Amino acid sequence: MNITQIRNDFPIFTHNPELIFLDNASTTQKPQAVIDTLREYYENYNSNIHRGIYRIAEEATAAYESTRNKTASFIHAEDSRSIVFTRGTTESINLVAYSWGGKNLKAGDEILITEMEHHSNIIPWQLLCERSGAALKYIPITKDGKLDLSEPDKYFTDKTKLVCVIHQSNVFGTVNPVEEIVRLAHNCDAKVLVDGAQIAPHHAVDVTRLDCDFFAFSGHKMLGPTGVGALYAKPELLEEMDPFLGGGEMIRTVSMESSTWNDIPWKFEAGTPNIAQVIGLGAAIDYLSELGMENVSAIEKELHDYARVKLAEISGLKIYGDREDKGAVISFNVGNVHSHDLAHILDTFGIAIRAGHHCAQPIMQKLGVPATNRASFYLYNTKEEIDRLTEGIMKAVEMFEG
Ligand code: PLP
Predict the structure, then answer these.
(1) The dihedral of CA 71, 212, 303, 314: what is its sign?
(2) Looking at the DSSP assignment, which residues form a beta bridge with residue 260?
(3) What is the pTM of this model?
(4) How far is ligand 1, taken at its centre, from the CA of residue 118, in Å?
(5) Catalytic residue among 129, 164, 188, 359
(6) What are 254's strand-pairing partners?
(7) Per-residue pLDDT averaged across 197-225, rounded?
């Protein structure tokens, strides 16, 4: 892969020649093709979808619905009716909590999640437990950033109704054994929701092979615009679920007394959706598909391997959950330098990393630290940037330790 050519597709690097962007687990930069797609929609065929019977409305509807087909192919869903557009992973998970959880959970039932979850995959379940009387249980993590699945019978029981698991950790980069978790869950008749926010941008996903019931992800973490993401759900589950938001477009008939619902997936897309963003997500999927997800993973693996070697040269630097076989996300602390101080100093060198709890406070509690630094890589990063990161950290430590 020619990284220089890839970088040229991202105008932010032309506009900010000094920028070393290593906060890709948070959000990613946008290729010109995505920016152009947004602009073209607004300039050439801006209109609402699914209702206008004039040319540009039909064009917009076709572009919007073609992203649904692209999204289904991208994650290997067999039926495009299983793709619901949302604002992102957070909204997708909340949709399941309200629409599936509200109907199917009661006191005595258990929702099983893990100690590795992002807050987006904790809070909706805590709220659902409050509403339904169900209990929340956690699969523990080990100190080295893996799920401890050594005693599955302790967690997967006949009370378990729903299992929610992060596929790739946004803190460690650990890729969890989701297929095994789906098998354990289905053995006790529980449904499985996979938080795919960190896997979909970086590795090929096959929801049909995984056999998960729900899969949530965000467009902005995979080169797409903000404000758009998707929920994959098995069509038979969407059919039986109650609507999430009520309003225009999600109905078939409305009378003063009662209403009936649109077909899936539109039953879950109330109101005017984020049309431009959905169409932009289609352009991001085209861009990634053209590169090939196996090539994206290979670029990241090379960067991750290199970063592990380089960062190991820094004395006092500790990587959490370090291992070769994981996603290109490195959480670390160095000496006594507070993560916010380090991130601030690195910013003065043009290097953007993340510092904090990464919306995963239970992990921080488990590690016994208030915060970590996190460098996360994507297809446009280079080994030279990792050299600059290493030098930057060394300089920062020198400044602190005199
Ligand atoms: N889940 C994981 C693992 C994440 O990393 C994130 C965002 O950082 C989310 C969920 C929430 O995604 P969004 O803010 O796009 O809804």
Answers:
(1) positive
(2) 253
(3) 0.98
(4) 7
(5) 359
(6) 259
(7) 98
